[in-house]
Amino acid sequence: MDFDKAQLTDIYRRMLLIRRFEESLGAVFLKGEVAGTCHLCIGQEATAVGTASALVPGDWMNGTHRGHGHFLAKGGEAKLMMAEIFGRETGYSRGRGGSQHMASFEIGFLGSNGITGGGIPTATGAALALKQRGDANVVVGMMGDGAANQGIFHECINMAVIWKLPILFVCENNLYAMSTPLTQSCAVQHIADRVCAFGIATKVVDGNDVLAVTEAVATAAEHARSGDGPCFIECLTYRFCGHSRSDQCVYRTREEEAEWKARCPIATFGRKLVEDGVVTEADLKKIDADVTAEIAAAEDFAQSSPVADVNRLSCDVFETKGGE
Questions:
Q1: Looking at the domain assignment, is residue 309 inside a domain?
Q2: What is the phi-psi region of residue 70: left when phi exceeds 0, alpha when psi lies from -120 to 50, beta otherwise?
Q3: pTM of the full structure
Q4: In a domain, 135, yes or no
Q5: I need a surface site. Which of 4, 147, 256, 273 has the fewest CB within 10 A?
Q6: Rounded distance, CA 288 to CA 279, Å?
Q7: Using H for helix, E for strand and C for coil, what is the string for 22-37?
Q8: Which domain holds residue 143?
Q9: CB distance 75 to 54 below 8 Å
Q10: Would you write out the chain's pLDDT as a tens digit for each of its 324 residues?
């Protein structure tokens, strides 16, 4: 895909927005201003933005339990997301969904899911709906490497291949399922080596190279739009932080962390833009200042918004009643 200066700058900005959002969120959790836990995607920004950059209006995307970046990449508003996580009425789910259960159908974001692999069947069902309606759009089902060991993942891949559904399974392989390294849960080098047995087209890509991710997703999306069925894309990346806020990362070495941080997707892309003459160092600093101000405003918006009304907790919830 070819991008102009404005598009390349926007790609950088969205990655930085995700990074600053997650840093701010991590800080408020540590200060005890927000209850519960959070799963940050610091270090994985290129997979989210690269994927979303390859989509067109009408395409759908879901998120994982580590899904703030997916939502922001698809066009989510930082202030509404922050308000939701703070449990405020102005949030996407009016303060009732929290960190892991936000959605916006208006921008084509199906929502995140707190269950490992839980979003995969949702995305697969959405792809089936698109095919039945005859729409020329695709669905992206985001997942982590841990989800590849869930039974529902294999069931959905099999179903998607048999029915030639317009879905892209994009796996963010950050090498660890919580604290379990991939080498202890997968007998082959790449997850793609395993799932190709279903007859699905696969691609392994550098998940820290945002343009490489975009190119891979764009190619896969065209494959799916043409009626040729689903694709599986494995993005090799790394989370700089722990699995959740209480994780001290005792299961991996500081040397490994330093090696991956040296490949920071944002810093790497920023250097490329400067070297290619797309932007200047001053431009990058201005973008950072603008993004930092946006996140500060989002946090202020969240803190000043009214707390979710407990009397409305059961509103907008689907309820089924069994027969007698």
A1: no
A2: alpha
A3: 0.93
A4: yes
A5: 4
A6: 13
A7: HHHHHHHHHCCCCCCC
A8: 5-303
A9: no
A10: 789 999 999 999 999 999 999 999 999 988 888 888 889 999 999 999 999 999 999 999 999 999 999 999 999 999 999 999 999 999 999 988 888 889 999 999 999 988 999 999 999 999 999 999 999 999 999 999 999 999 999 999 999 999 999 999 999 999 999 898 899 999 999 999 999 999 999 999 999 999 999 999 999 999 999 999 999 999 999 999 988 877 888 899 999 999 999 999 999 999 999 999 999 999 999 999 999 999 999 999 999 999 988 887 777 777 666 554
CB 151 within 8 A of CB 158: no
CATH value at residue 242? 3.40.50.970
The verdict on residue 141 lying in a domain is yes
The answer to whether 66 and 40 have CB atoms below 8 angstroms apart is: yes
* CA 291/CA 287 separation, integer angstroms: 6
Domain count, the chain: 1
Q: Distance (Å, rounded) from C-alpha 304 to C-alpha 82?
A: 11
Buried b (16+ CB within 10 A) or exposed e, 154-190: bebbebbbebebbbbbbbbbbbbbeeeebeeebeeeb
Parallel, antiparallel or unpaired: strands 139-144 and 167-173? parallel
